[in-house]
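Task card 7
Instruction: Convert sequence to structure tokens.
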Amino acid sequence: MADAIVALEGVHKEFQVGSGKIPALDGVSLSIAAGEFVAVVGASGSGKSTLLHVIGGLTQPSRGAIRIEGQEYGRLSDGQRTALRRSQIGFVFQKFNLLPTLTARDNIELARALAGHDQPADRAYERELIQRLQLENRLDHRPGELSGGEQQRVAIARALINRPRIVLADEPTGNLDSRNSEAVLDIFARLNRDLGQTILMITHNPEAAARAGRILHMRDGKLLVN
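Output:
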């Protein structure tokens, strides 16, 4: 796992429910190389979203090791974990999570502000990103004025604006119709192919998973061996 951009070793996650504990992850080990497009497929409750959250540093594992770019979460302070997450990981969720009072442009720029970048924005990269996502004519619109597919593309732009090494996508087509789902999956495939973007996508949809270069299956908190 030394060359992996994401590496998990024996990761467990348990949630306290009443007087007992419910296992969500049961000894998960996983290695993802830079530039891979990996899909994790599983039914609701299989643990796949919890897996994404612990990789993204949004949830702490009960035990086990998680390394991002060789840095182990467990050896970092809260501030260091936050800085690593903001600089190296972009998140795309089923719910677009756009601020309704801000324009698409401002929703995207907000990610830069939250990351605390003190360097001038790379406008050439931003223009290329916006063009790839076909948002040039939608930047001054608020989320309520955009279609579901357009909102998800804004969310993808927000996830990528800081040039993260890793994109974590949790059911990114779950709120979209079939046409917009295909468009979003095309975007992920192009980002992976053309820019070498590392993508881990969680989905319950086998057709969406088929767009990835590697498919993993999850059941009862375990990654199944193919």
